[in-house]
Amino acid sequence: MKTKALVLLSGGLDSLLAAKVLLDQGIDVTGLVFCGLFFTPDQAKKMAAQLEINLKIVDFSQEHLNIVLKPKYGYGKGANPCIDCHILMLKMAKEIMQKEGYDFVATGEVIGQRPMSQSAKKIKLVEQEADLKGCLLRPLCAKNLEPTIAENKGLVDREKLLDITGRSRKRQNQLAIDSGIKEMPSPNSGCILTEVKFGELVRKLKKMKKKASANDILMLKTGRHEFVGDCLLIISHNQAEGQELATLIQPGDISIESLNYPGPLAVIRSFGDNTQAILRAKEIVKQRSKKGAEKQDFEYKILNH
Ligand code: SF4
User: Fold this and answer.
1) Which of 103, 108, 163, 165 could pair covalently with 15 via S-S, beta carbons 3.0-4.6 A apart?
2) 192: CA distance to ligand 1 center in Å?
3) CA of 245 relative to ligand 1 center, distance in Å
4) How many CB atoms lie within 10 A of CB 33?
5) Is the pTM of this model over 0.85?
């Protein structure tokens, strides 16, 4: 019977190559990608199609959000809890592996590639926390690590695995050419949490409200944001954002828009006094309402939800 591997496809080049290295050994590879509130599986879908392998897509929005709000191992440059996120993905991958009879889980990790999540120490930590010791193969750097159970059993030929380390992309790029990879994935992770600006918003929000809710965080994904007094003020840039923002309004929020001119929707989420935020929201709504700013008949529609 063929060896079966479940390979985490991030949509990046490394996981694509990891899957390819295993496919070239004749291993039956299935891709696994997670999707959530902060990124999509689109890139991984393209990679799986390129490799002609099946892809499992698992929505872990809620579980992921929980660690974004309270990461055990902290954030990267943005609000990206990458270590916790890797642990979570691997725990879920382990469950699938056991339930569906895969021989091992594989990832495209390379020792030293990313300072936050791929140092030798972090790689070990993640494996331990996910309880995948011996069952987690990293084909691109396996020769620098202890052999896994699959290698010891001869299910995988260790000699055909690689020994890449460090931040240089040279070997991966060469491998991609040698392997005939036609479509190179974008180096961008596509995860909004890695964006420094978004990270700043999350940090500011958490200062204002210790136990920020999932909805609070989602409010940061759309529109323009200001922290005014004890409030978070969100203003839509366009109609689509206004509609999205409206779906996130919660009891206690105040919404302000123009009653008689097209313009933005402003939402105030109060964590204390909201006097300044209301004034600021009214000012912005008036300024940005088409043709409304100069008009004497300009009126506001203010709702206390
Ligand atoms: S970049 Fe985003 S999706 Fe990727 S590991 Fe970090 S938190 Fe998770």
Assistant:
1) 108
2) 9
3) 24
4) 24
5) yes
